User: Fold these one by one.
Assistant:
Number 1:
Amino acid sequence: MSQTPQTTPPLLELRKVSKSFGAVQALKDVDFVAPAGTVTALVGDNGAGKSTLIKCIGGIHPFDHGQILFEGKEVAIHSPKDAAHLGIEIVYQDLALCDNLDSVQNMFLGREIRNWLRLLDETPMEIAAGQTLRDLNVTTLKSLRMPVASLSGGQRQSVAVAKAVLWKSKLAILDEPTAALGVAQTAQVLALVRRLAESGLGVILISHNLNDVFAVADRISVLHLGRMAADVATADVDSQEVVELITTGRYRRQPAHAVREET
Amino acid sequence: MAVAIREYLRGYLGRVRSGELGTLPIILGLVVISIVFQNLNQNFLTAQNLANLLVQGSGVAVIAMGVVFVLILGEIDLSVGYVSGVGAAILALTVTGQHPWPWELSVLAAVAACALIGALQGTIVALMRIPSFVVTLAGLLGWNGVVLLLVADRGTIPIDNPVIVGVANSLLTPDQGWLVLIVGVALYVSFLMGQYIVRRRRHLSVDPLPLLAFRAVLVAGLGAVVVYVCNENRGLLVPIQGVPVITVLIVIMLVILTVLAGRTKFGRHVYAVGGNAEAARRAGINVAGVRIAVFTIASTMAALGGIVLASRLRSVDTGVGGGNILLYSIASAVIGGTSLFGGRGKVVHALLGATVIQAIDNGMGLLSLSAGAKFAVTGLVLFLAAAVDALSRRGRTAAGIG
Ligand SMILES: Nc1ncnc2c1ncn2[C@@H]1O[C@H](COP(=O)(O)OP(=O)(O)OP(=O)(O)O)[C@@H](O)[C@H]1O
Ligand SMILES: [Mg+2]
């Protein structure tokens, strides 16, 4: 395959990855690239294979075939731990937070800081959590010490995203982060997504909402029935064309440089 | 200062909305109960009766402290009553007889055996994912059987080891009582102040000073009342005065378990698993390990509670671990404010709840009401506590995020 020569390899690159569940071929020979410092949107119809792709990257189940390259090096990801070790942090739409714990406790869950007595050292945890949220301009959070159950959906999502930043992850994957949110909170989370990319992280954003995608994404990858239908720069397409790609897997006005040839 | 108080009130309201009512309602409840019973019977608030009450409730309080951990996890342990019986029976059988073991060894054997029981039940719950209700219900029956097998042909085993009997029956001297109180309050105050200063220096939110002062005064005041009342002479023929040793032991256990729950990685993970097990798993927490450890803690505390109960009675018989021990232990944790839905609770709830139950039990006993009336009232209080829990939980979901 011919690619424009790059000086630095992309943060994450998938080459011809496939995944099937029994007779169901969820992903077939998918190529996918997520560079650092950019928001890559992953779109596609229900059942196109988006969540499957994410789960394979996150180590929940492995690909059947294909290569994963992280920072140019081929890697194997067999478990969520492997993914976390590489610096891949996934923000799930649900199940991301413990409602009964506060923001600090959630952000440090499983990676708590302890003092010389091996007791929890709340002070540095609270300082780091507060600093991270401030860096991300999350200012609506009144108290870091309230159970997250009492936060709004957008605030909870912000805490989940901030966790990815706090742990200096290199790639943040957000699975429909705005699906349950209102207008103002959606804007808040999208702004946060943008700031993540600007701070140098690679961001993969899964969304069914093309307004959101066009608002923040630099590139759009379209999955159609388990195949990568297109990988385009947001500036090169309009939402009409993306809708067509999502539903049919092709579009009429074919810019040769943007669409991978279908066999 | 005013800002700090407003901040605190806001935080407090947030916690109330998310289902944490704090310990104030239950303390007020205790005051109300005391006033009611004192009005009905002048003997309720006598030195004799209050000292009695402290000792009567101690076994259940110790067991309930373990139950709190299980409830935080969102599970239940119905076996703690008879597991405490197994512990007491092992202790009684080994520390008495022709070749009595040293008491340390007997206690160790009882506690270790019960810890193993808890690990076994926890492993079944964690790895086979059989609901803890069923596993520990089987435990309730099974360990009752084991108690009967252990004790059966002996009928009643009297315990004469002075150390074991002393656990629930010996008293500090009046001076020792005051000394322990002063040291305890000094440690508590320096802990509060230390935390305040550290957080203040790092510009983190702090509880307002008047509130800290209120807490310190409350703890010191309650402690002083207990010591003062217990130091009154309550003997008829020979002088009997002083704080029961078991009360001090319970406070020590309270501190240790509170640190375990609130200040260690393990404790944090118990709350996390109880709040959202899947999120905990994704955060890399060994969920099965946490579950096994918590059931082990519950059984271990049951063993210690069983030892306290046996010490108080100075004997163990075939009924050990039965009666209302299990129900009172679980009811204590819930009445004290631990949620049945998992994720919320504190070790001190066990103590507060056990005190409420014991006050009702004791006060109604003084009024020579029947056991039936006692159970009915205790049941009502338990229902109220569970209803408050459920309602605050509903408020939480309503206010929360769909
Ligand atoms: N664990 C599984 N076992 C069997 N089949 C699966 C499994 N997970 C996904 N699939 C199948 O793989 C295909 C892709 O599913 P996937 O969840 O990745 O879609 P999606 O793009 O995330 O869709 P949506 O937008 O609805 O979330 C579907 O046909 C689905 O039925
Ligand atoms: Mg999906």
Note: Residues A 50-51 surround magnesium ion (ligand 2) (CB under 6 Å).
Number 2:
Amino acid sequence: MAASVGRICRAGLLKSPHVPTINQFSSLSTTREWTKGRKALLGTIGMLAGGAGALLLALDRSVRASDLELHPPKHVWSHSGMFSSLDHASVRRGYEVYKQVCAACHSMRFIAYRNLVGVTHTEEEAKAEAEEQMVLDGPNEQGEMFKRPGKLSDYFPSPYPNEEAARAANNGAYPPDLSYIVSARHGGEDYIFALLTGYCDAPAGVVLREGQYFNPYFPGGAISMAQALYNEAMEYTDGTPATASQLAKDISTFLKWTAEPEHDDRKKMLMKAIGIFSFLMAITYYIKRMKFSTLKTRKIEFRPKEK
Amino acid sequence: MGFNETVYNLIFKRTSTMALACVASAFFFERTFDLVTENLFEKINEGKLWKHIKDKYQQ
């Protein structure tokens, strides 16, 4: 095997590969025979084509006039950084906003009161929150359903018994479940914030049906949810001034938490992973150098057989 | 006897002591590593975590 490879490649296998220099390459070029005029012409055509392509791309990027929708601006959230946790005081205020405003129409079926413990509320507080509402339970020994005060293990109550009832109460539009809404919409919490604060008068030519409102951030512009947040729409228990933008910011942060309850742990894990893996990388590199050092310092000598 | 030699003779020479050393060092390494990263994370997010605000709601 080795002998036949050697016969095919001769000594070339052992030598460093022959790399032609730039000068050698240019002597191989077929454009050398071209006249000056031809070179100039082809060069101009090439430049024009490239420039036109770049211009088209830039125009497409900047205008995007084809869709009737405003993309939400990016905000600097206090949890935007690579290692930044959620602001739990804000999550707590966001829960108050959800409970007092959004819960009138939107369900949040995948969050239970026990999830609040150690995130926004103490255990006693979460229990008190749960007990505030009556939950349908049963059946008891008589086979009847009964109502009881909520427990930590109960999920947030839904405002409507089913989707049809929700549609009937909202002009046929279904208020989506908010548990995972931040993950379910492009733009995430930026979108929620922009949507809640972005209501304005419909521009001329936009027709809104009964029960519809204009919101440029909502795809299509006509949304069946009325503006929900106004200055002083409610009061915070921690005394933060309840401006519309403060309410929107807090509810967006809260919805970010409900959609990604693992958010903080994930960022902490990232930090640990970077630490551990840079350590392992360093070890791996060192071992590779060590194992190769014997190979790289070895001298190979070719001695033809003496006749 | 140099330090390296002592370590070799006491720990690395026998498989049993070597395995024990691996387990023990993994234990201590993990404890300190977790402590360091957790403290760093809390320092970066000073005032934002539940840990930092819970005193307001507990007696």
Note: Chain A has ten helices and four strands.
